[in-house]
Amino acid sequence: MDNLRQRVNDVLAKINLDKTKKQIDEITRESASPQFWQDREQATVKMKTLSSLQKEIEETEMLTMLVDDGDTVELEKALEKMEMKIFLGGEYDRSNAILAIHAGQGGTEAMDWSSMLFRMYTRYIERKQWSWEEIDQTLGDEAGIKSVTITVTGLFAFGMLKSEAGVHRLVRQSPFNADKLRQTSFALVEVLPVIEDTETVDIKEEDLIWEFFRSGGKGGQNVNKVSTAVRLKHKPTGIIVTCQEQRYQGQNRENALKILRAKLWEVEEERKLTAQKDLRGVYKKPGWGNQIRSYVLHPYHMVKDLRTDYETSNTDSVLDGDLDKFIESYLKKFAKSK
After folding, report:
1. Rounded to the nearest 10 degrees, how much is the dihedral formed by the CA atoms of 199, 203, 206, 212?
2. pLDDT value at residue 222
């Protein structure tokens, strides 16, 4: 119990309750204004954030109560939950996230693997009681998806999902050939923070090239009739962003700028990390060639994270969105290495 008390004291010393209470006060004041509710979507997002912040305060108070009660079992559970949030102290860890999945080597098999990952992450998002919205999707020629981009709305969405960035490898019996041969395929997962503060990343209008075209995806009667889809190119970096899932061009333009802002932030972060070499060694961008996790469905069942060595044989559960242990293992190791 003495050890648990010490851990509780350490947690309480690191948690910035004043900052949390200040955020609660700010959103509460905003919500009292009639203008707050004119943008229903934004108001809903902020009210969800308010609820999450209030829950943080309640969890902290519960931690103190459990110490007084002497319930070591419940205290251990609550303590682990609060300790995890300490690891999420990055500048944008509390932010919403942009998550993209791109099929790699493996043809149709890789596109099917991308659709499996898409399902896995949307299930994980649902488990967290977050919400998601599709921004762009390119379907596979025969099955699955070539690429898909979504925004994830929820407190700590970026902080929790950032550990998923990198190459994911699948080994299984292929359902796409009659011999059911063993097949290896790859998909790249990108995770970026949604940066609401436009001053953080300076985007000049003269650096942008906009193209508009007819959407080839979902969208009802507007599909292939109105040029609602957008393609945005940033001239200085060559970054290209495509958005076509919204019915209105203005919404797609807004989403394209949101993704570009996040990608430009990533470019700057990579520059800093490369220069510093990072405390963990030579910095490696989580892209092609840098495999982070292996999912084996044949001849045995195993999912293993190559960065933390955490593994499980319950592949069905993982592919159904049970990612907490993988994410927690990564965050703990990352925090210790800082």
Report:
1. -120
2. 41
Which sign, positive or negative, has the C-alpha torsion 307, 310, 311, 314? negative
Q: In whole angstroms, what is the distance from residue 218 CA to residue 333 CA? A: 41
pLDDT, tens digit (0-9, with 9 covering 90-100), for 245-281? 777 888 899 899 999 999 999 998 888 877 665 444 4
Nearest residue to 292 (alpha-carbon basis) of 93, 104, 82: 104
pTM confidence score: 0.80
Q: Pick the closest to residue 300 from 167, 172, 169, 117 (CA basis).
A: 172
Alpha helices in 162-222 (DSSP H): none
DSSP category for residue 179: T
Residue 73 burial (10 A CB sphere; 0-12, 13-18, 19+): exposed
186 — phi, psi (to 5°)? -135, 155
Give the rounded distance of the alpha carbon of 45 from its chain centre.
16
As a whole number of angstroms, the distance between CA 121 and CA 109 comes to 19
Residue 201: how many other CB atoms lie within 10 Å: 17
* Residue 101 CB coordination number (10 Å): 25
Nearest to 89 by CA among 18, 146, 160: 160
Question: For residue 165, what are its two tokens?
Answer: 């960035």
Task: Count Cα atoms within 13 angstroms, Cβ side, for 247.
Answer: 4
Q: How far apart are the first and last CA of the chain?
A: 28
SS3 272: helix
Please report which helix (H) or strand (E) contains residue 114, including its range. helix 108-127
Beta bridge partners of 131: 153
Which amino acid is present at 328?
A: E
How far is Cα of residue 62 from the mean position of the Cα atoms in its chain? Answer: 28
